[in-house]
Amino acid sequence: MNVIPFLKMTLSQKRYKGGFFFGTAITNDEIESLDFRYFRTADGGFSPTRSGFRIGHDALENFRKLVNQVDLPIEPFSIWVHQHRKLVAQYRDDEYGQAVDFRYYITTTKYTGWEKRGIRLSLTDFENLKETFKSM
Q1: DSSP element (H, E) containing 63
Q2: What is residue 129's three-state secondary structure?
Q3: Is the pLDDT of residue 136 over 80?
Q4: Could you tell me how many helices (H) and strands (E) the chain has, helices first?
Q5: Total domains present in the chain
Q6: 75 by DSSP, 3-state: which?
Q7: How far is 35 from 27, CA to CA, in rounded Å?
Q8: Which residues, in sequence order, are CB contacts of 19 under 8 Å at separation 6+?
Q9: Among residues 67, 68, 11, 66, which one has the least CA distance to residue 41?
Q10: Which CATH number does the domain housing residue 108 bear?
């Protein structure tokens, strides 16, 4: 297995100062998954956080459709669905500003709803992500 970085971005939100948003491809002979994650800088290195998401090989085409979508707002868009969990991207316009939120939604007997895990990208950051992904 190889991990190939293809994106390193500073995010524009204050809460993400002091780190970078990385995109990596996890490969064997082909891309198995893409991981998009915010890393904090600490002690001269990087420490991963829960802020981010992973897209498996079977959902790459759905992600490609999302980044090629021209119009905003984005209706809630399921990037992938597995058993009791799914990754949803949706446009948000609230007191925190305009953004695209990538968040996990879970359905179990004990809890149904949004998980904390995921990340909210400002529209500028989302456009930068789209441009990088399109050039791959």
Answers
A1: helix 60-68
A2: helix
A3: no
A4: 2, 8
A5: 1
A6: coil
A7: 11
A8: 11, 38, 39, 40, 41, 46, 49
A9: 11
A10: 3.30.2450
- Write out the two tokens for 41: 């800088």
How do 77-82 and 45-56 pair as beta strands? unpaired
Instruction: Give the C-alpha separation, 20 to 22, whole Å.
Output: 6
| pTM (2 d.p.) | 0.89
What digits encode the pLDDT tens for the residues 5-28? 999 999 999 989 989 999 999 999
| Domain span including residue 34 | 2-134
Interval 24-77: pLDDT, tens: 999 998 999 999 999 998 887 889 999 999 999 999 999 988 888 877 777 899
Distance of CA 39 to the CA centre of its chain: 13
How many C-beta atoms surround the C-beta of residue 84 within 10 A?
12
| Residues 17, 20: Cα–Cα separation, whole Å | 8
Lookup: tokens for 117: 């895990």
Name residue 63's amino acid.
F
